[in-house]
Write a structure and sequence with these properties.
The protein has 243 residues and is α/β, with parallel strands linked by helices. It has one domain: Alpha/Beta hydrolase fold, catalytic domain (Rossmann fold). Helices cover 33% and strands 23% of the residues. It is built from seven helices and eight strands, in the order E-E-E-H-E-H-E-H-E-H-H-E-H-E-H. Helix 2 packs across helix 3. The relative contact order is 0.16.
Length: 243
């Protein structure tokens, strides 16, 4: 029987909270979920992903980036530096667990997808597959929001900087990437998805959802995104299809 565990993941500054979904059979491949700028590990879509993908035979790890959800860790230097450091800490933690088979995939939403691509490009340990939902190619809008958004001011220190890179123009050709984007996304244009698709390496796949918004709030589109993402992970050897 699968099980769900709350765990503290060590970082250079302390710990960030995470939730681990363990399937019946371990060790198993792992899918690490990376939430967006103002989201958190307990969002409905990531909770559903944890349950469904665990049933498919994968370990699923959800975590809060510094300053989000239950995380009290102070963000350092810049937004991108802090969050990329968090992701490194989580993946390092996963690699050292007995329940991990060593095959790791990343599923990122919005800024979480951006960070997933950066990590996959820099890591000396290959990432098995990456899935990006509603992911920006350029962070210009976020850069402006850091000084204007009242909601952002609640999770980032005063005068906090975005950091680099501010776009994916120089991204290495990360292989095995699935890109899903709604064509009614008012936050990140679906043209960003096309730009990412042109940059990443083979094998790759681009799915544009005609009436989906940024958060995939429509149950039909969200269910389809979850299904297509699971199929991608299955193709890349990250789950054993037991549904």
């Amino acid at each position: 029987m699968s099980s769900v565990h709350a765990v503290p993941v060590p970082t250079p500054d302390g710990f960030i909270p995470a939730v681990v979904h363990l399937p019946t059979r371990i060790p198993a491949p792992v899918v690490v979920c990376c939430h967006g700028l103002l989201s958190y590990k307990g969002s409905s879509k990531f909770a559903a992903i944890g349950e469904e993908y665990c049933r498919a035979g994968s370990v699923v790890v959800r975590f809060d980036f510094s300053g989000c959800g239950e995380s009290k860790v102070i963000q350092r230097e810049s937004l991108l530096f802090s969050r990329l450091r968090d992701l490194r800490s989580v993946v390092d933690y996963v690699r050292n667990q007995s329940w991990s088979s060593g095959a790791i995939g990343l599923l990122g939403s919005s800024l979480g997808g951006y960070l997933s691509l950066l990590y996959a490009a820099e890591s000396c340990h290959p990432i098995q597959a990456v899935v990006c939902w509603a992911t920006p190619f350029d962070l210009s809008r976020i850069k402006g929001a850091l000084t204007q958004s009242e909601e952002l001011k609640q999770i980032v220190p005063p005068d906090f900087q975005l950091g680099n890179p501010v776009n994916l123009m120089d991204l290495a050709p990360v292989p095995r990437v699935l890109i899903i984007h709604g064509q009614q996304d008012q936050t990140v244009s679906w043209n960003d998805a096309v730009a990412i698709y042109r940059r990443v390496g083979e094998p790759k796949r681009l799915i544009l959802m005609e009436t989906a918004d940024h958060r995939l709030l429509d149950p039909h589109w969200r269910e389809m995104a979850m299904k297509l993402s699971l199929e991608w992970f299955l193709e890349q050897g990250l789950c054993s299809d037991t549904i």
